[in-house]
Design a protein that fits this description.
The protein is α/β, with parallel strands linked by helices. The protein folds into 2 domains: 135 residues, Ribosomal protein L1/L10, rRNA-binding domain (Ribulose 1,5 Bisphosphate Carboxylase/Oxygenase); 84 residues, Ribosomal protein L1/L10, domain II (Rossmann fold). The protein is 30% helix and 22% strand. It contains 8 helices and 10 strands. The strands form 3 sheets. It has a 5-stranded mixed sheet. Strand 4, helix 3 and strand 5 form a beta-alpha-beta unit.
Length: 231
Amino acid sequence: MRKRSKRYVAMAKNEEKGEVFDLTSAVAQVEKNAVAKFDESFEITMRLGVDPKKADQMVRGTVSLPNGTGKDVRVLVFARSPKDKEALDAGADYAGLEEYADKIKGGWSDIDVVVATPDVMGVVGPLGRILGPRGLMPNPKVGTVTFDVAKAVTELKAGKIEYRVDKDGNIAGAVGKCSFTPDKLEENIRVFYASIIASKPSTAKGQYVKSIHFSSTMGLGVAVSESSFKN
């Protein structure tokens, strides 16, 4: 049986089992529970009424959070000159081609997002077995395979995140830090939620959003009523 920490047990005693919060109250509750010694991420998890095994019910996309994520995103851009310089000028942490392909093959992993220009996918493609399982493989559907590398880097640095439904029908995303003011967190959350709603597959039947939960990195999850998003 899994042993819970004293901090977790203490928080759990203060939670009413089965309680569902409105959006504003849920944000306050998660921030109250975020007592770790570091700035915890604020996370949202949505359970969707889709069957991810069916290609026409896959929910995947990107969303730009108006207040950013609070995280310093490390961006690698695979590109040849002069696109590599454009990427660096836009704020990319790394830009180049073969040297970074070799570093990744050697185990290097000091990156959060990978962007590539279409003309270098012949070099990047074989890295799929390494980048794919880590969710880093560039994909044109989410804007990470593009010649407009400056725009891609700028958006990623400003708070653009990718989401994808998992095999159990869940979508999760970090929408800020618990140090954010409640109004900034709520604005990010509403934008994330709206993007998921807009991505609803036309073939999805029945209830689309089955549940919504908020949590911090180390804190308890709280259930949130979807109706409170529509106020």
